[in-house]
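Human: I wish I could look at a protein chain and see how it folds. This is the protein in question:
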Amino acid sequence: MDKTWLELHLQVPEAVVDLVGNALTELGCAGLTVEERQLDTFVPPDPDEPAAGDYQVRAYFPRPADLALLRQAIGDQLRWLATMSPGLTTVVPEFIEVRNEDWAEGWKQHFPAVRIGRRLVVKPTWEAFSREGDDVVIELDPGMAFGTGTHGTTRLCLEAVAALFEERVRRRVLDVGTGSGILAVAAAALGAERVLACDIDADACAIAGDNARLNHVSDRVEVSGAPLQALEGGFDLVLANILAEENIRLGDALVTRVAPGGVLVLSGILLEKEPLVLAAFARYPLTSPQITHREEWSCLLYRKAG
């Protein structure tokens, strides 16, 4: 089918890249790709170029009936998000027309298979992969730019999940702010008997459910749109790959849902916000955290006494 799409390029500060992606998706974006701009240390930075560490976001829209209305809606969202991140542009660039086959090929450059730990592999549905030994391979729809295993926060959480299941199987798992469902699917694929994936975003819940079915773990992954405070039960592993401020705000609810002997993994935390989260969680009956870093992100792993 010879269909034309509209491609939009934005330079987005790291702190709001997920929020921008979610906002564009709500406005009808059919797919996103995200790339980090790397600094060339041998060339002086160009003041007219985006800052190193910013992300290049490409968003693809079907041609709307009213293009001006779409541009206005995107501009409104950017202006609102700029109140949280002054470095975010509020100018909506011109759309670029791309053919359907060009877009389809473009996805393949941004979603390689990723090995996490000894045996967990995350791959897009279209890519062939030769399984080795006891590899656990999970597939995701290549249209999902966030929560594919390539972003620093998701990678940190996946590495923690893979390592914890190497220790022993965690039977009951709670994934807070599940997004694409990648963490929930990984936990189920690694042997969890019951995984509860929650997200207050209805679109995220639908995507997580689709990915659970795609990986044949929907019988063990329950997706819920209920807020965390409404969920009951204790869990052997609680995952929260959300913003630092949300981790702090939900601290009581997160900790009380960790069963005795269980583990709490917090991610989505910028390095500069790590001290705030550490201070907030110091009052809870948890061990000193195991801290890991990737790029500009921090992951904190706490254990509760049995």
User: Anything to note?
Assistant: Residues 77 and 118 are 41 Å apart (CA to CA). The radius of gyration is 20 Å. The longest helix spans residues 67-82. Residues 37-52, 142-146 have pLDDT under 50 and may be disordered.
